[in-house]
């Protein structure tokens, strides 16, 4: 084994590494999904796992998402620590009864006695192959009992998958598909946790706080570069966790900038950006010197064809929003 | 199996197997009567006791169970759950295993019971299948038994889980407690063929059994349980029983006059007569058990009524996620 402390990994490689390390350590961890064996997973998302752990720990399931999630919950209730992969977020609705009526209720409704350490891993948004782009992550952030994460960097992808696997309750792990095979970054070799529930300041700046989720982080970083040339400095908060929301990090950033933009690939109405904005408005409305702008997908079902680019947020939207926020600042 | 809690322990231990099982059915009937009177929204199980007791009475303590929601308390008590705490759930008391939070027909998880944490049907088949998956993963010979109604058999979860369990040869027995009704709809409106026939489509054994004959249910279960324990995979049993009362305790059942059905003979009477025929019991023995059940249930109800109501202290904001 090499002694190098970190290597450059993609988002996807970092996730697989977290899963493999956890499975080596704990025999109770096993994996349920479709095409996760010989094919190596949708988008190569489980590459190498079946070769190392065999078909009893990397279990290929029928196309039965409700049974897959139910089976994971039951296995967890009886002492195992399963990871269940729903190939794409568009298939989550097929398991909604288990995901909404069971998973988040089991601990609470049993008077705090039941433990269901289950990770539900899925992929959402626009991606290199174009399929299954709908992002339903906000639905789950609404429900008490779930933790919902969407990392935006390879290092957090590994750290948050490790944290999710070690959590004693249900965690929904959303993978933004446009990041899966995107830029590599150094990722520590040894297992580590990125705490769930903590946002991260990805870029410091004095003028506007941009709270970005998942695939929107690189867009915000690009926008910040362009705006810096105009003398506007964005502070970018990588939200990382949709539930529980890191209200302290949001408030602390807005205390500095006094302006707020939210951006995510999911729809705006009822989206997580609204919750971010509410956390400021409820706690310290006096901080805001300009209107809040929320950016997200256009209010249409995300199109499959060439129309899609026009429905999704991009760096230009963020640049324009920041200019509007600066221009409409109260004296 | 726990000792029958309606007799002094020494006496309960001394009961023959037949009387013990009769005692559990008698307790279930009495408990059901009293809980229906105490809570108009309770779901009665009168008439279905032979299926309920027969499906679960021969399991081992480490096996998992997922019981149909229709007054399953005697099933939980056979595993050692306390009658007072179960009654407390129906009365909304603090001492319920669910702390006054979930639907009242749930049971304690630490007795290997799949809990009811919502009112949706079909999901328990998934969680039960997962229990069987856990046992396969750990390499033990534990099994899971899951009962559900003939109405629930039409949820997609039935198909998904039986197919998954058969594909993976999971150690589970699915038992359809077919009582002929889905609330107000008679089974002939929603079941064009016996539920047991579907087993063939999943490549597992399927059995139809007289669900009001305790011996027949046990016999069928023993075969299916042994098969599961030996790693040969799941089975499906359809136990034909009859819903003697309404869907809920205060159900006026007007629909039943419009769509009359044929009653089945009372499983307690049938089993009691059989014990007498076999010379295993006298009519007096049976009377004594029914009286003991009546007394035990009445005094437990009184104790449960005296418990404090669940309230704000049980809201449990810190028990949402471990």
What does this structure look like?
Chain A has 13 helices and 14 strands. Chain A has helices at 11-25, 49-53, 65-77, 96-102, 106-109, 137-141, 154-166, 177-180, 216-228, 247-257, 272-283, 308-311, 315-327; strands spanning 6-9, 29-33, 58-60, 81-86, 119-124, 147-149, 171-176, 185-188, 200-203, 208-212, 234-238, 241-243, 260-267, 293-297. In chain A, the strands form 3 sheets. A 7-stranded mixed β-sheet of chain A has the order 3-2-4-5-7-6-12, sandwiched between helices. In chain A, strands 9-11-10-13-14 form a 5-stranded mixed β-sheet, with helices on both faces. In chain A, strands 1-8 form a two-stranded antiparallel sheet. In chain A, strand 2 (29-33), helix 2 (49-53) and strand 3 form a beta-alpha-beta unit. The longest helix of chain A has 15 residues, at 11-25. The radius of gyration of chain A is 20 Å and the shape is globular. The relative contact order of chain A is 0.12. Chain B has a single domain (9-305), classed as Rossmann fold (3-Layer(aba) Sandwich), CATH 3.40.50. In chain B, the strands form 2 sheets. Chain B has a 5-stranded parallel β-sheet with strand order 1-2-3-7-6, with helices on both faces. A two-stranded antiparallel sheet of chain B has the order 4-5. In chain B, helix 3 runs parallel beside helix 8 (214-229), helix 5 (83-91) crosses helix 11 and helix 6 packs parallel to helix 7. Chain B is globular and about 50 Å long. The two termini of chain B are 31 Å apart. The model of chain B has no long low-confidence stretch (mean pLDDT 97). The A-B interface holds A 28, 30, 56, 59, 61-62, 64, 66-80, 97-98, 101-102, 104-115, 144-147, 168-170 and B 64, 96-99, 101-102, 106, 108-110, 112, 114-115, 117-118, 120, 122-123, 125-135, 137-138, 156-157, 160-161, 163-164, 167-168, 316, 319-322.
């Amino acid at each position: 084994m090499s002694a190098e402390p970190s290597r450059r990994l993609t988002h996807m490689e970092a996730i697989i590494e977290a899963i493999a390390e956890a499975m080596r350590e704990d025999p109770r961890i096993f994996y349920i999904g479709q095409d996760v064996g010989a094919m190596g997973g949708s988008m190569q998302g489980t590459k190498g796992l079946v070769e190392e752990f065999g078909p009893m720990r990397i279990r290929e399931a029928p196309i039965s998402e409700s049974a897959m999630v139910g089976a994971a919950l039951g296995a967890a209730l009886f002492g195992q620590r399963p990871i269940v992969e729903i190939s794409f977020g568009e298939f989550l609705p097929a398991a909604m009864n288990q995901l909404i009526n069971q998973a988040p209720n089991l601990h609470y409704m049993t008077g705090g006695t039941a433990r269901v350490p289950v990770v539900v891993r899925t992929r959402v948004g626009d991606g290199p192959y174009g399929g299954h782009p709908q992002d339903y992550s906000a639905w789950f952030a609404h429900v008490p009992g779930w933790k919902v994460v969407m990392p935006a960097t390879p290092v957090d992808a590994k750290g948050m998958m490790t944290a999710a696997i070690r959590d004693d309750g249900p965690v929904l792990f959303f993978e933004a598909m446009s990041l899966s095979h995107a830029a590599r970054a150094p990722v520590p070799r040894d297992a580590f946790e990125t705490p769930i529930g903590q946002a991260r300041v990805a870029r410091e700046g004095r003028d506007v706080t941009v709270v970005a989720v998942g695939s929107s982080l690189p867009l915000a970083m690009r926008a910040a570069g362009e705006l810096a040339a105009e003398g506007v400095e964005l502070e970018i908060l990588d939200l990382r966790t949709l539930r529980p929301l890191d209200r302290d990090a949001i408030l602390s950033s807005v205390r500095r900038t006094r302006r707020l933009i939210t951006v995510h690939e999911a729809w705006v109405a009822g989206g997580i950006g609204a919750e971010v904005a509410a956390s400021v408005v409820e706690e310290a409305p006096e901080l805001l010197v300009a209107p809040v702008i929320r950016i997200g997908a256009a209010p249409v079902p995300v199109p499959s064809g060439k129309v899609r680019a026009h429905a999704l947020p991009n760096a230009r939207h963020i640049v324009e929003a920041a200019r509007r926020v600066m221009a409409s600042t109260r004296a | 199996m726990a000792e029958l809690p309606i007799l002094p322990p020494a006496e309960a231990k001394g009961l023959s197997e037949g009387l013990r099982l009769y005692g559990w059915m008698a307790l279930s009937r009495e408990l059901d009567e009293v809980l229906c009177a105490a809570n108009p929204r309770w779901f009665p199980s009168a008439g279905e006791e032979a299926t309920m007791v027969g499906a679960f009475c021969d399991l081992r303590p480490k096996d998992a169970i997922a019981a149909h929601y229709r007054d399953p308390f005697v099933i939980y008590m056979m595993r050692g759950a306390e009658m007072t705490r179960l009654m407390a759930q129906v009365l909304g008391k603090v001492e319920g295993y669910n702390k006054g939070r979930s639907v009242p027909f749930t049971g304690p998880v630490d007795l290997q019971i799949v809990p009811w944490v919502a009112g949706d049907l079909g999901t328990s088949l998934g969680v039960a299948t997962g229990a069987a998956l856990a046992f396969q993963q750990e390499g033990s010979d534990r099994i899971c038994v899951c009962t559900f109604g003939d109405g629930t058999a039409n949820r997609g979860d039935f198909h998904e889980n039986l197919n998954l369990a058969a594909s993976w040869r999971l150690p589970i027995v699915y038992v359809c407690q077919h009582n002929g009704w889905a609330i107000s709809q008679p089974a002939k409106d929603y079941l064009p063929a016996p539920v047991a026939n579907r087993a063939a489509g999943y490549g597992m054994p399927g059995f139809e059994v007289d669900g009001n004959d305790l011996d027949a249910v046990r016999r069928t279960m023993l075969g299916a349980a042994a098969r599961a324990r030996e790693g040969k995979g799941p089975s499906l049993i359809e136990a034909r029983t009859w819903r003697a009362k309404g869907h809920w305790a205060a159900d006026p059942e007007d629909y039943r006059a419009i769509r009359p059905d044929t009653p089945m003979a009372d499983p307690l009477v049938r089993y009691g007569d059989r014990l007498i025929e076999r010379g295993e019991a006298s009519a007096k023995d049976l009377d004594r058990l029914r009286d003991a059940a009546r007394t035990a249930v009445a005094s437990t109800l009184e104790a449960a009524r005296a418990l404090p109501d669940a309230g704000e202290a049980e809201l449990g904001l810190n028990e949402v996620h471990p």
